[in-house]
Write a structure and sequence with these properties.
The structure holds 2 protein chains of 2 kinds. In chain A, 76% of the residues lie in helices and 1% in strands. Chain A is mainly α. The longest helix of chain A is centred in the first third of the chain and has 31 residues, at 11-41. Chain A starts with a helix and ends with a helix. The chains are: A mainly alpha, B mainly alpha.
């Protein structure tokens, strides 16, 4: 935007802008390609029905939030493998709160719980996400545990806590106000999609327009240099895991609102998919590079891909296979192209 | 063994293991029965064999979360081959086949990690998903149960090294423990006394230095991931022999337990550090904790919380130790990594 308005475009700035938007253009081209291929392949025009895309707009935002969170963690060269554990724990604690307030675990009293209580449930879920993020952040930035190990461990502990709290079976039954978050259509658009767009906008602004966001990118480009430059790396890193935790909690809210249930082992396949979306969006797992719009484009591409294959009656296992193969293929292609540059 | 001083990670795990065993034994004397102890060794043998492969990858500076899928694929394919076609028909060949399948899959990891230079965690997440998806989506989802299991596998699973009749039943030391011990001895010899073994430490300690000293980085990467795959294959088939069934859904989620055990045993996720005795102790400690929560009266639902806490605690201990040791030459890594 800035370069367009400038009277003289310096060649270096122009190529840099082209390169940045070039990545987005490549992704957009890929999206169009997948869309065309699926419209052509899937028999009898079932792919192009509005209902198909409507259905996706309720399901995809959960994955989108987790992918944005993964990208944010990767900015500093980290990773958050506890996202699914946090999401489930947040949904379960909110559910338990509702059951405790209503005094029953099903029936009209629970369904008709007042909106302030629903808001309290959302607050409770977000608080769980933030606390989990603080724990992860302190383990990683203060104790210097590798992000992989720290978040595998805490993820295991969060899932374990969820299991202890529920005893195994799902928590079923949420207030109707909560369910509206997952199934409502304010303004004719799926509520989860609004939530995703709102979060994506917020995170996008935070990461690209604030000192904190730039600090994260700099930590990812060179942690030592960032420290010597006087940046408060510990605080910035802890806050980045708070952000991923809160995003995971929002995903947990949407998941439990859509399915009207919360369980300790829901959504486990989302972990790989979130990493895939983030990496396909050009995020560098070693840190320093990632953008929210790119994640949204990659999300659309992969959702079209998997819905197309599902419509062609591929088994879910084969869809997993395709996700994994796409991850490896996309990363290998990216690496080869980068080396060629 | 003289490198394993009192302050080494191995000594730390051994101490925790002894304390845990004493505590559990005091709380419930049933723990000290030979049957229970041999049972613990038997149930540790499968994840223990996998842990050796993960150890080698960690020492070389990588990480592997694909081995449960590889183990399931090697197990299911070799058992199905024997059950459906009666081939290869001999337990030795079956283990070779399983190891070979694991080896090939491990080579794919090495290709992506070294050839394309991708991050090991993401590569192995991807290969794991591809292999598991292929296994369940293309090969099949049906469980090969006792009736259809090849007889040679069941016969092998029933073999015991030692057995005698105790008062309440027969006490047996399963042959699986021998497989684990043999694999541990081989990996230990490789790591301690061969040039490639020392090279793995060098590679994990500092890849650039290892390259300049003249180590074949590509060969070492292939060795690490190939060996991890092969050991996963052997462990997979071993599990089928012990359980008398082969399910393509087996081992899901096992990567966390095994990684926890290896890190508990003093291996560093940054590479260059770790040992077979430490890993064996780590596996034993984790199996002890997992299997003894019930003896202690702790509900099994707490198991994952405990494992997660142990993993974080072990990682924190390693991180603190490494910060203290950073300037000095490391305990277990050969001096060549620090000299470059």
């Amino acid at each position: 935007m800035d370069t367009e308005a400038a009277p003289v475009i310096r060649p270096r700035a122009a190529t840099r802008a082209l390169r940045r938007h070039g990545d987005l253009l490549t992704l957009a081209a890929l999206l169009v390609l997948v869309f065309a291929a699926m419209s052509w392949w899937v028999p009898s025009g079932r792919f192009l029905r509005l209902a198909n895309f409507e259905g996706q707009s309720f399901v995809a935002p959960e994955l989108g939030l987790l992918a944005v969170a993964t990208m944010a963690a990767m900015l500093t060269g980290g990773i958050d493998l506890s996202l699914i554990g946090v999401a489930n724990l947040a949904g379960i604690l909110a559910g338990l709160l509702f059951h405790w307030v209503a005094g029953v675990s099903r029936g009209p009293e629970l369904a008709g719980l007042a909106l302030p209580w629903v808001a309290a449930g959302v607050g409770c879920a977000l608080l769980v996400g933030a606390l989990a993020g603080v724990l992860n952040g302190l383990l990683i930035a203060r104790l210097r545990i590798t992000p992989i190990l720290a978040t595998i461990g805490t993820g295991q502990a969060f899932t374990g806590l969820a299991l202890v709290l529920t005893g195994g079976p799902a928590i079923v039954g949420f207030p109707s106000g909560w369910q509206a978050l997952g199934g409502g259509t304010p303004g004719g658009v799926a509520a989860p999609l609004w939530v995703l767009l709102g979060c994506a906008l917020g995170v996008g602004v935070l990461l690209s327009r604030t000192v904190w966001g730039r600090t994260l990118t700099l930590i990812g480009s060179g942690a030592r240099a960032a420290e010597f430059a006087g940046l408060r790396t510990v605080r910035a890193t802890v806050l980045s895991y708070v952000l991923t935790g809160v995003l995971a909690a929002v995903a947990g809210v949407l998941l439990s609102a859509r399915t009207n249930a919360a369980k300790s082992d829901y959504g486990t396949s989302y972990l790989l998919q979130a990493i895939l979306v983030a990496v396909l969006a050009g995020t560098n797992p070693a840190g320093g590079r990632g953008s929210v719009p790119a994640v949204l484009l990659a999300l659309c591409t992969l959702m079209l891909l998997s819905s197309g294959f599902q419509l062609m009656r591929f088994s879910n296992f084969l869809v997993d296979f395709i996700w994994g193969a796409t991850l490896l293929g996309a990363m290998a292609l990216g690496a080869v192209l980068r080396r060629g540059r | 063994m003289k490198r394993l001083g009192l302050r080494s990670p191995e000594a730390g795990v051994a101490a925790v293991l002894v304390v845990a065993a004493l505590a559990i034994g005091t709380a419930n004397p049933a723990f000290w029965g030979w049957g229970n102890l041999f049972g613990l060794l038997r149930s540790a043998s499968v994840s223990g064999t996998m842990a050796l492969g993960v150890l080698v990858v960690l020492i070389a500076g990588g990480i592997d979360v694909s081995f449960p899928a590889f183990a399931a694929a090697a197990m299911y394919l070799s058992v199905r081959a024997a059950a459906d076609w009666g081939w290869p028909g001999n337990i030795g060949f079956m283990f070779l086949l399983a190891a070979g399948i694991g080896l090939l899959l491990g080579l794919a990891n090495a290709l992506f990690v070294h050839g394309v230079r991708l991050v090991p965690l993401i590569v192995t997440l991807g290969t794991g998903a591809v292999v598991r998806g292929f296994l369940l989506g293309v090969v099949g989802t049906s469980v090969v149960n006792v009736g259809r299991m090849p007889p040679e596998t069941v016969a092998f699973g029933r073999l015991s090294l030692l057995q005698w009749d105790a008062g309440e039943g027969r006490v047996q030391l399963s042959v699986a423990v021998l497989v684990w011990a043999a694999a541990a001895a081989l990996v230990h010899l490789l790591l301690r006394f061969t040039v490639p073994g020392r090279g793995l430490y060098a590679l994990g300690g500092d890849a650039e230095a290892a390259k300049r000293v003249g180590f074949d980085v590509r060969g070492l990467t292939v060795l690490a991931y190939g060996l991890a795959g092969a050991l996963a294959g052997v462990a997979g088939l071993l599990h089928a022999c012990l359980a008398w069934q082969a399910s393509p859904r087996e081992f899901i989620g096992l990567e966390l337990d095994v990684l926890a055990a290896v890190v508990l045993g003093g291996a560093s996720i940054f590479g260059g550090r770790g040992s077979v005795p430490g890993t064996v102790l780590g596996v034993l400690l984790l199996v002890l904790v997992n299997n003894s929560l019930i003896l202690l009266g702790v509900p099994t639902t707490w198991q994952r919380v405990v494992v997660g806490a142990i993993l974080v605690g072990a990682a924190a201990a390693t991180a603190l130790r490494e910060r203290g040791l950073r300037p000095a030459p490391s305990i277990t890594a050969p001096s060549m990594t620090t000299g470059a």
